[in-house]
Amino acid sequence: MISYGKQSINQTDIDSLIRIFKGDWLTQGPTVKKFEADLKNYFGSDYACAVSNGTAALHLAGIALGWKKNDIVITSPLTFLSTVNSIVYSGATPEFVDIDFETYTLDPTKLEDKIKYYARSGKEVRAVIAVDFAGQPCDWKALNYLSQKYKFQLINDNCHSLGASYYGDKQYAVKYADAVIHSYHPVKHITTGEGGAVLTNNKELSDKVKKLRSHGMTKIEDELENNEGPWYYEMHELGYNYRITDFQCALGVSQLKRLDEFISKRQAIAQKYNNFFSDNDFVKVPKKYNDIDHAYHLYPLLINFKKIKLNKSDIFKIMLKEGVNLQVHYFPVHLQPYYKKKFGFKKGDYPLSEMFYENEISIPIYPDLKNNEQYKVMQLFKEIFND
Ligand SMILES: *Cc1c(COP(=O)(O)O)cnc(C)c1O
Fold first, then answer.
1. What residues flank ligand 1, with Cβ below 6 Å?
2. Average pLDDT, the chain
3. Is the pTM of this model over 0.85?
4. Residue 295's closest CA among 244, 324, 259?
5. Distance CA 348, CA 353 (A)
6. If you measure from the C-alpha of residue 313 to the centroid of ligand 1, how many angstroms do you get, rounded to a whole number?
């Protein structure tokens, strides 16, 4: 089966796991620290805190940043559920700003309008979570400028964009955002099975996240109210068990070494799609900028279904019959029944995200996608367009 995304596991990855299983530590051992050190090194952050998944990373970042009831936290409707759910976990109120239709990421101009709209009724926006959708970095210069002008916290949900570069810089994410969120789910750029991390240059934030991922426990002498002995720990704040294991981190260490290779393979696949689809006016391909390198977690293709006289389900059926499993990213989060009912969002609120959803199909892109498999996908599209 050819899928829209898939992990790549080689013998080196497997060997790194076997070494852990033969050793002393399955969890809370030295390999978690090793993976965190490698993350800091690769992504240029002062601190990295690996956790059980990307959703947990978002959850802990929100709590560590102090979000609470009645705080307004803004994100894009074009993201996975977790981004928005994490706002609700902290008790804050989720709000959206529509996408820019070139980058498919949160539009800074509309963001400023929304901030001004709230300011007129004396309300402040506490934080913004911007998503580097599909692998395309947001307009971080503009977002960072606004975060300083209006004093809101800025989070990069970077789950799609590990290995992207922004004006030649792969370490851009922590330079513009207060906290950067990773996921290492198998469809993402590197995998630990389930896993995630919070990266930041803020020590206080990192210390909080580290404590919260392990029940809010501390053994640090300076922080203890009493010290009853070497067995003793205290809890001053409600935390969680969001720890990641040593064997997951061993896979992470091995996968991170392969990230550059993964990204160049994805970019080569994308280039072939770009060339192939540039021939016709039925589709719109992801925008390619000169000084920004897309990481192509996804290859979102926008299709003019009216012109090709087929609908999305028809294309899914044709492809599935040939062993190609497509996907759609994403059904806009504000239209989820939960968000409509609880917060009153409705159809028409964010027309560009809605239009994007109507037209989008994510076509197969992953490092192990073979030439002949990609060729097959393109041939199937050729037949679809010629109908
Ligand atoms: C995958 C993903 C997450 C959540 O990550 P998990 O590790 O699956 O919990 C959050 N945000 C975005 C944009 C994602 O793609």
1. 53-55, 79-80, 82-83, 131, 157, 159-160, 183, 185, 196
2. 97
3. yes
4. 259
5. 10
6. 25
